[in-house]
Amino acid sequence: xxxxxxxxxxxxxxxxxxxxxxxxxxxxxxxxxxxxxxxxxxxxxxxxxxxxxxxxxxxxxxxxxxxxxxxxxxxxxxxxxxxxxxxxxxxxxxxxxxxxxxxxxxxxxxxxxxxxxxxxxxxxxxxxxxxxxxxxxxxxxxxxxxxxxxxxxxxxxxxxxxxxxxxxxxxxxxxxxxxxxxxxxxxxxxxxxxxxxxxxxxxxxxxxxxx
Length: 211
Fold this sequence. Notes:
By secondary structure, the protein is α/β, with parallel strands linked by helices. The chain has eight helices and nine strands.
């Protein structure tokens, strides 16, 4: 279970949010909403431990994520606006490097299989610099097919994807939730899972509520 209690984040002289609290349990998805600049990406990176909160606490199964350290980071995968892949590496190489950094090394065969499932058959061994933006996004998202983390944090994951890829990613997210995983995401797409599994959190209001 992920618990956020009294979280605040200040960047420079600007308070992005304060007194923010929510809980996410197995089999639930949290949909973050808010205008550009409301702090959605900052919140996601803070929850992952990539940025330091100004106040409050983030707990994973009752323990502070900062005390847990790698025991927490191995249980979370973050895919941000940027794909986080290297242009000089192939899709297979990028996926294997990212998986190793996630603490979940995979074989070359596993990388090929994941990229094929993401619709990249015939492009697996091409340098990523020659891929389209949609294909690069698929390489980044292929991490979800090989990563064993329980918490997925996805910042606009459907960006640059065609209809077929959007449908496939929807099914991956749905399967992860149905198997007891957790997802935090921002998106303008409708997320096609049952309403009971979805929580929503709006950022940018003067008073931030609790979820």
